């Protein structure tokens, strides 16, 4: 039996549905509807702000506010032009390696429903020597939906429609799962699942688990959500690079394994007492974890949390992920489960007496 099969069936179904629901930055409505439906029974209150962030809240009147942030948006594309032959051209949303797009099955998410397509290039038989050696440029790629001409395509697709890879989750060996959008639907799942678990532990703090938007284009959702919530403590959950595969330099990226547990980060973006508390809880409850270091402001929601308003005591917990920003991102279900358990227990133990002011 895989780790996925051992989870709460509703949590299992929620994760799979999240992975298979589109959420390019700025187009998160579909996945946020899924989040609201799933977490509503466990929360005292569920809010959606004008930016699109979904906030699930337990104890909204508590004096101490804890914010968990996991962004639900994924990298994608945006239709910008349709030529006379009916081929679509698109900009990227977020950071793509163009080589990852060649030969991929795509979905255009239109007002009337999903339209399948594909991205390819001239067959290798027809490439000249210079073309074979050249790294493809994004502006040389197009999406083929099978339209016979521009008018036929325009009857289906509008300029500004979002595009994703074909969204599907595949179970691999040893409890691993693979597919696009693990960055960061897994982190979103962790913060929502942590609230569901913590709600049954009689917490005294206010818990705000936020499915944040537009992280991939500048940490935008976490910035606005934190400004609204004004948390005292904030923990971001995102993915980080797993280094247990060929070609990754562990001397620079650390020794991070799938199945080794969630990664607790240390460094100037993280409050040392929050880090210490996370480690203590993991040790006490025998929750597996790994340590990593980041010497600068992190490129994720922890960055926005730390410097919100007058400052937030911030932590960063990450899910090891192989092949980030690809169609085959790969994570361990054990790491997701352990991360949710760690955050739930952090929330259950946080009280108004806790002081996270750094001191010797």
How would you describe what is shown here?
- The protein is an alpha+beta fold and 360 residues long.
- The protein has helices at residues 3-6, 9-19, 29-39, 129-133, 150-154, 182-198, 220-229, 250-253, 272-285, 301-306, 333-349; strands spanning 45-48, 54-58, 65-71, 76-82, 88-93, 105-110, 113-120, 142-144, 162-165, 170-171, 176-178, 206-212, 233-241, 263-266, 290-293, 313-321, 330-332.
- An 8-stranded mixed β-sheet has the order 1-2-12-3-13-16-14-15, sandwiched between helices.
- Strand 4 and strand 5 (88-93) form a beta hairpin.
In terms of topology, how is this protein built?
Elements: H1 3-6, H2 9-19, H3 29-39, E1 45-48, E2 54-58, E3 65-71, E4 76-82, E5 88-93, E6 105-110, E7 113-120, H4 129-133, E8 142-144, H5 150-154, E9 162-165, E10 170-171, E11 176-178, H6 182-198, E12 206-212, H7 220-229, E13 233-241, H8 250-253, E14 263-266, H9 272-285, E15 290-293, H10 301-306, E16 313-321, E17 330-332, H11 333-349
Parallel strand pairs: 3-12, 3-13, 13-16, 14-15
Antiparallel strand pairs: 1-2, 2-12, 4-5, 4-9, 6-7, 6-9, 7-8, 10-11, 11-17, 14-16
Helix pairs in contact: 2-3, 2-6, 6-11, 9-11
């Amino acid at each position: 039996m895989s780790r996925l099969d051992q989870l709460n069936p509703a949590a299992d179904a929620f994760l799979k549905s999240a992975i298979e629901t589109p959420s390019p930055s700025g187009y998160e409505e579909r996945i946020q509807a899924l989040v609201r439906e799933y977490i509503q029974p466990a929360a005292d209150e569920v809010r959606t702000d004008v930016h699109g962030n979904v906030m699930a809240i337990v104890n909204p009147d508590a004096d101490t506010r804890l914010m968990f942030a996991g962004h639900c948006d994924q990298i994608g594309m945006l239709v910008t032009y349709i030529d006379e032959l009916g081929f679509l051209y698109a900009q990227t949303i977020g950071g793509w390696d163009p080589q990852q797009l060649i030969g991929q099955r795509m979905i255009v998410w239109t007002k009337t429903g999903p339209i399948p397509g594909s991205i390819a290039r001239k067959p290798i038989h027809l490439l000249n020597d210079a073309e074979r050696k050249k790294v493809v440029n994004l502006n040389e790629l197009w999406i083929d939906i099978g339209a016979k001409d521009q008018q036929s395509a325009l009857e289906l697709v509008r300029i500004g429609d979002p595009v994703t890879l074909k969204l599907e989750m595949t179970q691999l060996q040893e409890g691993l799962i693979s597919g696009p959008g693990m960055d960061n639907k897994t982190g979103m799942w962790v913060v929502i699942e942590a609230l569901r678990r913590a709600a049954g532990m009689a917490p005294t703090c206010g818990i705000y688990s936020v499915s944040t938007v537009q992280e991939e284009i500048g940490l935008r959702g976490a910035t606005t959500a934190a400004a609204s919530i004004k948390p005292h403590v904030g923990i971001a959950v995102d993915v980080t690079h797993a280094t247990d595969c060929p070609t990754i330099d562990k001397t620079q990226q650390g020794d991070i394994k799938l199945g080794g547990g969630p990664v607790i980060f240390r460094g100037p973006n993280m409050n040392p007492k929050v880090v210490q508390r996370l480690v203590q809880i993991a040790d006490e409850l025998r929750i597996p974890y790994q340590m990593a270091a980041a010497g600068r402001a992190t490129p994720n929601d922890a960055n926005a949390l730390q410097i919100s308003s007058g400052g937030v005591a911030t932590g960063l917990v990450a899910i090891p992920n192989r092949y980030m920003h690809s169609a085959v991102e790969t994570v361990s279900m054990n790491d997701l489960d352990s991360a949710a358990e760690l955050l739930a227990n952090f929330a259950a133990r946080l009280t108004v007496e806790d002081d996270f002011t750094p001191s010797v």
